[in-house]
Fold:
Amino acid sequence: MRDLDYFVLFAEMRTGSNLLEANLNEFEGLSCVGEAFNPAFIGYQGNEELFGVTAAQREEDPFRLLDAIRAQDALTGFRFFNDHDPRILPTLLEDPRCAKIILIRNPLDSYVSLKIAQQTNQWKLGDVKTRRVAKVSFDPIEFEKHVAQLQKFQQHILHALQSSGQSAFYLAYEDANDIAVLNGLAKWLGVEARIERPSTKLKRQNPEPLEKKLTNIDAVRDGMARLDRFNLARSPVFEPRRGGVIWAYRACRNLPLVFAPLPGGDNSDVLAWMKAVDGDTPDGLLQDFTVESWQGWLRDNAPHLCFSVASHPLERAHEVYRRQVLHGQRENVRRFMERVHGVTLPPKSELDSYSLEDHRIGFAAFLRFVHANLHGQTSMMTLPAWAPQSDLIADITTQCPIHALLKHEELAQTLPALGTRLGADLPAFERAEQHNRLTLDSIYDEEIEALGRMAYEADYLRLGYRDWRK
Structure:
């Protein structure tokens, strides 16, 4: 009887996980079956099922697929990324009979590789004759978010392993083709087979030096400067680590006033008011803070006033649905709504013919999705865009206490009133006009309200909201 039931390869996109999987499958007695718990597919693109378990069955019960993986004769495993089914992750981390392999790569290389793959739509390379080449632009803010997401997932895994007294087998991207390391990994997994050469199925896609892959290599210096590489700005605290959202803050240049927006809502009118407060300076509001620049702003602007704006949970959910699902790129949410609720949304090019009744049905399905997602019943991560505002507010306060939590429907009175606390006369606030026929008012009824309360019960309670119509 073997000591392990299965294994998981923790990695991220563009870290070399396809190559490492191909090499693992060269060993007799080992089998790696792709991204078994990717919400968008099961195992590999185009698969309808894995070990007799369909994607719909996995969505309903992910442990059904995990049991099927455990039952295989060969020691079987799969790749798992930070955006895969979160319901299965605690079991993977807590199970001592699950071997943990952790693949890491220089985040700058993985970021650039990801940008190239997105532009060329080439995610694997089997024959160099088919290689697609592209140069991409480096975005310092986007890179900072990329690094923060990777670090958050790695810290979560590390803490779970330390807390349960387990260890993992760590590999770097450069090790994925190293025969000595690969054979050492097989030995660690308890497999007797050894290989003499790595797999030849995949080729490295972008071997050129960094300057050959970027259109703006000088911007990398700015991106690196934004990172607190050695965590020097963090004071020792004995609390769970949390990722900050300071890059999203907007601060005035001429007043000690900062706005901490909550993801999901439409803040364009608040930002327009902030610019008016600041006198519409040519450089605009201060933004894209790093840990260092944010702490510098706090020191230079004491006392300061930080405010945030909450919206009615139903109105915010409708805004997210309209902008990010109907007009945006939330393809995984669309597929969930279609598979689970039988709702097919039209492509963006056909939204002009999208009826109000179809819009009501689609929004109702989205609210059901949010309820399931917030209760850990879907294979998708909970994203800030539809996370409860009360939870997001708690996260903000770890970086800066919110001195004023305002409600969007009351901003005409409450925003100018902040001037009393700042000793300044502030301009009037004007709410942005809506030029869109797909409004919440056009589809609102008792069912929509009930579904909104079901999805966002915590926000209704903690933020003190009544029914939207009232």
Notes: The radius of gyration is 25 Å. The chain has 17 helices and eleven strands.
